[in-house]
Amino acid sequence: MKSALLLGIALAGLLPAETLQQGERDRAMSHLHVTRKMFLDSLEGVSAAQWAWKPSPEVWSVAEVAEHIALSEDMLMGLVKKVVAGPAATAEQKAEAKGKDEFVLKALVDRSKKAQAPEPLKPTNKWKTKEELIAAFKKSRDNTISYVQTTADDLRGHATPHPVFKQLDGYQWVLLISGHAERHILQLQEVKAMSGFPK
Predict the structure, then answer these.
(1) Nearest-CA neighbor of 165 among 155, 151, 154, 179?
(2) What is the rounded CA–CA span in Å between residue 140 and residue 181?
């Protein structure tokens, strides 16, 4: 009996991890494609003067918001890969993350709640031109979409806390990449609508 139990445990370790359901995969890719287009459309036709304009020293310019979006893509994707490479989520983590997909996407676009960007994601003029930044974003976002399209990682089986949303599983962190971009695209549009924005 004991040997049969040990054999069962050993075989369980060889079972493949659960991959995303096709509906989950499609939903994440669709949202990533939508926010990719939103970002590129929001920068279409932005002049050099509009790109650099700041309504006040403490408010980010279009360039700074765009840089924050581009910087965040790789950092968040790196976090997703680190999470899925780590230990499996506990039953408690899974229970806390369960059902948060829609909540994450909705909460992120609520611009009434402000947050400070962590130091590594604050803009420092990393890319010298709008074109360089757009090229970097496209490359990063295409890599994110490709990962979601092809990954066999068990995104639902791994979790780590978010400072605001608490426990999120790997799939929810992927949704957060896209939702975070949408949040700051809205911010970018707010800057463009401000009084004094160059014509």
Answers:
(1) 179
(2) 12
Tokens of 87: 């230990």
Q: Is the pLDDT of residue 10 over 70?
A: no
Which of 107, 75, 89 lies closest to 161 in space, CA to CA? 89
Tokens of 112: 């009434």
pLDDT digits (tens, 9 = 90+) for 107-123: 999 998 787 888 889 99
Is it the case that residue 45 has pLDDT exceeding 90? yes
Domains and CATH numbers, the chain: 21-192 (1.20.120.450)
Q: Write down the residue that tokens 């950092």 correspond to.
A: 75
Which amino acid belongs to residue 34? V
- Determine what percent of the chain is predicted with pLDDT higher than 90: 84
